[in-house]
């Protein structure tokens, strides 16, 4: 499984510890079983990915989704136990334990001065079925490579995408816990709650939190809780045909710091190639036609500037595989049908390098 259950998980004495280790703080029994089923599905896929290639290795299969774009926790993964230490991040007076940081119904707000007051649905969700939006997407919406940044999305777009998660029009080419949790929440959130969350996130001024670096060699990485992180020792390896996106500070990101920043390593020449593709005379790949001249979005399509290139690659791949349907898929399908992996890497490297 994606996160191993303690051997005595069902025992009364250690039940609380088992829930903590599995990341189920605050969930009732029915919800624990649903999330467990989600994670078992992802774990089965993890076994197949492990047999193909490590997410941190340059070799990869050309026959399926690239593991670096769809990080899945290995079967042996287990979260560190909470030792009671109060976690801190720079420029914040707040402090949280690991248990608090893992509570799906309490979004840690490290920097309340950065945003308006959090709506209840963003801050706490609604037990037992609707997780706090600010837990996964962070308090003011930057998210991480494992999910979407909500920066720059209109309220209408956020609402529409949530509905598409609910109706099954938006899925992934690979089973993913982050998507499964979003689907679960989308089915139980009320229209009013969704409107409040969408209006809140749409009110936040976008900012860039990614540095795109062209390179031939990258830090060796491993999957750590659904994202790539450098292994200890500082070893490097060829980048190959990959994007390697890692937090500048892993512990700050794990603490759900909304100011956490990332480095996205891309192959040399990717940004220029992506710029040329995006502005090419080929009408099938003219991004500005729908996303606007500055790629910051229009009434037709969302902004794509300064977004996580790993996330953006998954969207292109999912449109191409048919996993993502719904609004604008008819417009995107002819575009992605003609894009290979190198083209997708170049395009998202370019868009990630832009100003939001």
UniProtKB/TrEMBL annotation:
InterPro entries: Cyt_c-like_dom (IPR009056), Cyt_c-like_dom_sf (IPR036909), Cytochrome_c_Oxidase_Subunit (IPR050597). Residues 64-74 have a biased composition (Pro residues). Residues 56-82 are annotated as: Disordered. GO terms for molecular function: electron transfer activity; heme binding; metal ion binding. The keyword Hydrolase does not apply. Keywords: Electron transport, Heme, Iron, Metal-binding, Transport. Gene3D superfamilies: Cytochrome c-like domain. Coiled coil: none annotated. It comes from the Bacteria. Signal peptide: none annotated. Residues 90-205, 269-355 form the Cytochrome c domain. This is Cytochrome C-binding protein.
């Amino acid at each position: 499984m994606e996160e191993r259950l303690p051997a005595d998980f069902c025992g009364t004495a250690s039940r609380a510890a088992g829930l903590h280790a599995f990341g189920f703080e605050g969930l009732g029994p029915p919800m624990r079983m649903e999330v467990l089923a989600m994670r078992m599905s992802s774990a089965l896929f993890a076994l197949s990915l492990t047999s193909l290639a490590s997410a941190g290795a340059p070799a990869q299969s050309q026959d399926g989704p690239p593991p670096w774009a769809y990080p899945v926790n290995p079967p042996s993964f287990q979260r560190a136990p909470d030792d009671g230490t109060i976690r801190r991040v720079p420029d914040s007076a707040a402090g949280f334990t690991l248990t608090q940081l893992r509570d799906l119904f309490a979004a840690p707000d490290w920097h309340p001065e950065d945003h308006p007051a959090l709506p209840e649905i963003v801050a706490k969700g609604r037990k037992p079925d609707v997780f706090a939006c600010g837990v996964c997407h962070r308090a003011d919406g930057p998210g991480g490579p494992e999910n979407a940044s909500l920066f720059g999305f209109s309220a209408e777009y956020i609402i529409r995408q949530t509905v598409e998660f609910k109706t099954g029009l938006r899925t992934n080419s690979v089973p993913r816990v982050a998507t499964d949790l979003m689907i679960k929440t989308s089915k139980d959130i009320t229209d009013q709650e969704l409107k409040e969350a969408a209006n809140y996130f749409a009110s936040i001024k976008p900012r860039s939190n990614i540095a795109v670096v062209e390179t031939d060699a990258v830090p060796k990485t491993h999957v750590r809780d659904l994202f790539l992180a450098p292994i200890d020792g500082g070893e490097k390896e060829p980048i190959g045909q990959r994007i390697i996106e890692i937090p500048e500070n892993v512990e700050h990101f794990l603490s759900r710091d909304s100011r956490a920043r990332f480095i996205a390593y891309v192959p040399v020449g990717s940004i220029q190639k992506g710029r040329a593709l995006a502005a090419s005379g080929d009408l099938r790949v003219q991004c500005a036609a729908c996303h606007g001249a500055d790629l910051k979005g229009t009434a037709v399509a969302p902004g794509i500037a300064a977004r996580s290139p790993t996330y953006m690659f998954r969207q292109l791949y999912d449109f191409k595989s048919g996993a993502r349907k719904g609004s604008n898929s008819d417009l995107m399908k002819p575009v992605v049908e003609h894009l290979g992996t190198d083209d997708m890497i170049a395009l998202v490297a370019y868009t990630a390098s832009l100003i939001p």
